[in-house]
Amino acid sequence: MAPAYKPPTADEKEQYVRALFDRIAENYDAVNQVMSAGQWQKWHKEFVQCTNHKPGDRVLDVACGTGDLSMLAAAQVQPGGSVVGIDFSEGMLEVGRRRVAQTPYRDMITLQWGNAMDIQFADNSFDGASMGWAMRNVKEIPKTLSEIYRVLKPGARFVCLEAAKPYSSLVRLGFFLYWKTFLPLIDWWVMKSGRQAVVRPYTYLSRSLDSYPMPDKLETMFQQAGFRDTGYKLLMMGTVAIHYGTK
Q1: Comparing C-alpha atoms, which of 109, 51, 44, 41 is closest to residue 78?
Q2: Tens of pLDDT, residues 178-224
Q3: Quick one: DSSP state of residue 32?
Q4: Could you tell me the domains of the chain?
Q5: Strands of the 126-132 sheet, one edge to the other
Q6: What are phi and psi for residue 142, nearest 5 degrees?
């Protein structure tokens, strides 16, 4: 019998999440389609409507993963623009680079190693920034927001797409029942098939919202980091949120 799942401590979280995404990188995009019940592209279209990227802009995609939002940004900033995606999972970056290489945006997008809490770019470097499905995985949300704010130019917008805790108690009950039942089954299958489970990625993801702030609290954190004109848009009965703010 497999040992009971033990969530990572705050000190363990960064290393744990890196190992997690290295492990699931090859199947990440396919599993997301299943997890989202086919809504993945729809949510990303809503996300694009909240950005204000323009041709010629330089955009930063924080925790870029396999490059979904990087490619969406590239479509907006052409011609003359560029996108830099950073992620601390080399496995995700490898998959992302292969995907980008097969698109018309391959010369516009650079995917490189980077840490969301210690972004290695100068102040006021980017005309916009994005982050998708990663804020709940960072060790410190305030530090991450402060770093993103720092590297943006005045007037630039940051837009964050993420799962959310629904305000409706009824929806929250149904969502967490699905979230905490379906995702751990993927890990069960992995272990039953004889593969080693140093981390349990989908069990972790099913618990990753437990301590994540409600949408209004996250907006307050945006404001505390210095962002103005903040707000958020709820999708899928409040289970997905798009937050935004301007430097």
Answers
A1: 109
A2: 767 766 676 665 555 444 455 566 777 777 888 899 999 999 999 99
A3: H
A4: 13-246 (3.40.50.150)
A5: 109-113, 82-87, 58-62, 126-132, 152-163, 240-246, 228-235
A6: -60, -40
